[in-house]
Amino acid sequence: KNQVEQSPQSLIILEGKNCTLQCNYTVSPFSNLRWYKQDTGRGPVSLTIMTFSENTKSNGRYTATLDADTKQSSLHITASQLSDSASYICVVREIHASGGSYIPTFGRGTSLIVHP
Amino acid sequence: GAVVSQHPSRVICKSGTSVKIECRSLDFQATTMFWYRQFPKQSLMLMATSNEGSKATYEQGVEKDKFLINHASLTLSTLTVTSAHPEDSSFYICSASGTHSGNTIYFGEGSWLTVV
């Protein structure tokens, strides 16, 4: 069964510090991996998307890496801000064998709290 | 980017009644829509996947007779919570995916359901 494991489950850091969130997956065949940020009570917003051939992708202070061989991804947040407090969800999509829908598998998310 | 609209954003209903939540893709054809629920401080939990014109596929443990999902068109899916109980109070989010842009998943803003 396809699985996406995220760590840590929760993280508290001080404003201005950097942090790294992890995502390990067993989804196969792999299509793409996306990191989402979800503010409390809001729908998730996409931060980055990475396909098999991409190793790193940045979006402002967010940098995602992907190692397709070890099936690991990380999301690095630089110079954290209070507004970074949110849940970060890793979603890995599988190529459906019969075509059509690309099935997503969700991680449980990492809850990040940034303190002043 | 593509927009997914959810309505209502907040709804309060009496125990035993039914409530319908709509999910619309505003500028693309959503061949697949996903419905999730999220309890406080927890990650998204996929409830069901629906392909336009087909019956929804429910995740294990989700009662299909209680959570009715209809995906009758390429721009609209509805989730109806029947015979609502207070324990159904939760945050419900939809997402939509189409072939227009590599099967990217776009999320709605979510709907808060409170059953009293």
Characteristics:
heterodimer, A: 116 residues, mainly beta, 6-stranded mixed β-sheet, 5-stranded antiparallel β-sheet, globular, B: mainly beta, 7-stranded mixed β-sheet, 4-stranded antiparallel β-sheet
- Overall structural class of chain A, as computed from helix and strand content, comes to mainly beta
Q: What is the helix/strand order of chain A?
A: EEEEEEEEEEE
Quaternary organization: heterodimer
Helix content of chain A: under 10%
Low-confidence stretches of chain B: none
Beta strands of chain A, count: 11
Termini gap of chain A: 41 Å
State mean pLDDT of chain A (0 to 100 scale): 89
Q: What is the C-alpha radius of gyration of chain A, as a whole number of Å?
A: 14 Å
Instruction: Give the overall average pLDDT of chain B.
Output: 88
Number of strands of chain B: 11
Task: Give helix and strand order of chain B, one letter per element, not per position.
Answer: EEEEEEEEEEE
Helix content of chain B: under 10%
Shape field of chain B: globular
Number of helices of chain A: 0
Low-confidence stretches of chain A: none
Major sheet summary line of chain B: 7 strands, mixed
Count up the helices of chain B.
0
Q: What gap, in angstroms, lies between the N and C termini of chain B?
A: 37 Å
The biggest beta sheet of chain A is recorded as: 6 strands, mixed
Can you put this structure into words, describing what you see?
- The complex is a heterodimer of chains A (116) and B (116).
- Chain A has strands at 4-7, 10-14, 19-25, 30-38, 45-51, 56-59, 62-67, 72-77, 86-94, 103-106, 110-115.
- Chain A is an all-beta fold and 116 residues long.
- Chain B is built from no helices and 11 strands.
- The termini of chain B are far apart.
- The A-B interface holds A 31-32, 34, 36, 38, 41-46, 49, 87, 89, 91, 93, 100-104, 106-109, 111 and B 4, 6, 31-32, 34, 41-44, 46, 49, 51, 91, 93, 95, 97, 102-105, 107-110, 112.
